[in-house]
Fold these 2 entries.
Entry 1:
Amino acid sequence: MKYLVTSALPYVNNVPHLGNLAGSILPADVYTRYRRLNGDKVIYICGTDEHGTPITISAKNERLSPRLLCDKYHGIQTDLFERFHIKFDNFSRTTRKPHYELTTQFFEKLLANGHIIEKVMTMPYDQKAELFLPDRYVEGTCPHCGYSPARGDQCDGCGKLLLPEELKNIKSTISGETPIFKKTTHWFLDLPKFSDRLKGWLESQTHWRPNVRNFALSWVKHGLKQRAITRDLDWGVPVPLPQAAGKVIYVWFDAPIGYISSTRELYGGDASKADEWWKSKDTQLIHFLGKDNVPFHAIVWPSMLLGVDEGYNLPHYIEGYEYLKFNGKKFSKSLNHGIWLDEAAALYPADYWRYTLISILPQTKDADFSWQEFGKRVNDELNDAIGNFVHRSLTFIQSKFGGKVPEPELDDAAKEMLKSIDATFEEAGKLFEAFDLKGALNSVLRLAKKGNQYFNEQAPWKKDNPTALYVSVQLDAALSVLLSPFIPASSQRLWQTLSQKGSVSSTSWSAPKVAAGTNLQKPRPLFSKINPKEAAERLASLRGKRG
Ligand SMILES: [Zn+2]
């Protein structure tokens, strides 16, 4: 089996915050790293989403052309994801020419196959600004849940897809005026046609999380509507029809096609190489995303893949995360509520953030990041349970055995501990297979705690205990491998301290053996404690300096 892993393409209009990182990009990276260690063929595909009203609105606010705004933030995001050790196989852009070509082909094929319908509809129109108001150009109250501000295409409160005319108290976000409704021609994806096939397919996806599967199924059961996939906008992939001058394809139609165009880019544009991932039956297509993206990935995108009828695989698994909050509230740029990745990178090592975010990953319910939580995870778990165990065992080997791994005489306690190592590889591996990343991390943490207990019971400071130190080194090496999907930089440092060759990320998902007689490097502490109160102050002072 091969694994094609994607994370939702981030809009290229901002500096991402911790919630953006935790909401798909980091877990997809962690999962891919596990797959690679497990010896599986895997690629991780992403890129920036450069179309739609999120881009045009931000461009206007920053007084840049959409093109320059995209250039600016593509650079910033590429750099930040690297600093958090996100290892994409390809990170593309949806404004590149091959993506335009592929999106055009998708549209034309769906049209030719009778899945796209031309219709006249009414859309909100700003008389002052003299333009139609798609998507984020209008805001109002959600008719389903009462959330405000809901956008013209989706409600952030309940996740439902909306039409602008459904919004109550609709306002133009450009002029603040109440828009009039005016007739305009658009092209619709005929989703009802796919209902039966989608329903059967969704019902058979029993390995999905119930919240994701039920959310998608309830959409189908309530009756799918034809969805407009074109917009009156001047930024996007042009609709490839002579009568559609000035209209572009909806960003949510072109964005998932970006997964395919980015895969092709990885192979220098060779479509047949990309198809080995997209069309071969021995590949699982796995999408990581936030719950607001579930309807697009579980309904619209599969319909597109079915509709072009070119043998594309449907998603095997859709991981739709709940939301990460900051101090109990939504991240908000306008209120400066949250922590942004440039700030996070300036404050603490990437591994502290990666560890904490996975340990509180919102897999089944919303999660909350607070400095207290960060302190607890970094101090009690990373530093005390993991870092201290490793450091104690390695410094004892330095002081008692000159840094050389001693020859053991394996007693029952030692054998039991070595067995626990194997059992953890097996258990954490199974949890990864079930997409329970948080569970896999907990399993590794339990092993480290067991190691501490073993070390304390064996008390190698009381008498020479070469066996306990030998076993501890095996545990150190195991932790280095087990933790490498989560905290790759620290794992690699530990790997080198243990005089192991190459990269820990390219070893295998099994207990490594550090032979007796191996000369270890002098250990340095892997982590240090943080003070949550000081962390908040450091962030404030960083913001002060930046103005
Ligand atoms: Zn709503």
Entry 2:
Amino acid sequence: MLKILHTADIHLGAKFSGLGNEGASQREQLRATFKNIIATAIDERVNIVLIAGDLFDANQQPQRNIDLVIEQFDLLKQNNIPVCLIPGTHDSLDSSSIYRKVDFEGKCSNLKIFADENISYKEYPGLDLTVYGKPNLSNRSSISPLKGLKPSTSSKFHIAMAHGSFYIPEKIAEDDHVFRLEEVKASGMHYLALGHWHRVYSCSEQPPAWYSGPPEWIPDQREKGAVLLVSLSNSGEVKVEPKKLGLRDYDELEIDVSGVQDLATLKARISEGAKQNLIRKATLKGLRDAELIANPEELETELGEEFFHLSVMDKSHPKLEEVSEATYEEQLIINRFIKLMKRQIESSEGEEKDIAENALQYGVALLDGKEVL
Ligand SMILES: [Mn+2]
């Protein structure tokens, strides 16, 4: 049996400007989680570690991040664990690449960096394994990272690493290092370790091809980070187990303020399930009573201490006491809409009238360009 730790998109050195004062702390946490990945690889006695691109957030790095990587790869070496790496889109192998400035392979004899322009491979006879990969040479490319991939040795196990976008019609930019399902199917690999997408995601069952996502929370990510522990049995069966290593968690909360009576209730709703390591994005929506005045910045300051980071966005719209078509020019749709709805309100009663009144308020807000739904 072969056991692998697959990770990618660690983004060491990321700036986190959106986190304000907590940015530096999360940047430090990336380093701590990276150490945790290496400790997990040693604990779990994996045979090899694969890093499928974007180990670094940029090709310019403080010396301490370079030292950290060398120190941690050395820990793997002391435990007889090799490590393979491909340059990704953030740390691509361009002329100013960190992998050209620093001789990581010279300092870590257990490290293989795939640096040939085309797919190349590294054989591990002791593991009966061959690993394949190619670097991303720039941030953008229309060439598939799987181009030319095929088993090239007599190893029992063949595993590829790639950093790019899985092709989904109309969802993917053509120059985002795109590869297709047919290429995965025809690759002859037992497993494909992918990077670039920032979540755990399986593109193919046979052969299994997975994105690990970042191990620790980075901006635009919508879940807690993980690494993948992959086991390949001698009979060719592959088991993939995501292990959540990230410290910081993330959630999004949408609050319809139309049912919220007062500020205390609104605060309680925002704070529901607050945790010290949670990054929460709260959005206020709907039509609010004119008396309910909520200042997002004040809410962030007042409730922020209950979270690692809280952001509040107000997309709600005040309910108008009186809606009049006279506010809008005759030829505008909104003017016609108000006239029609008023006629509807006058001619209905009971629940129907309530619905028509709500429809008038929502309709005016929407035609005004507000996001109330
Ligand atoms: Mn990335």
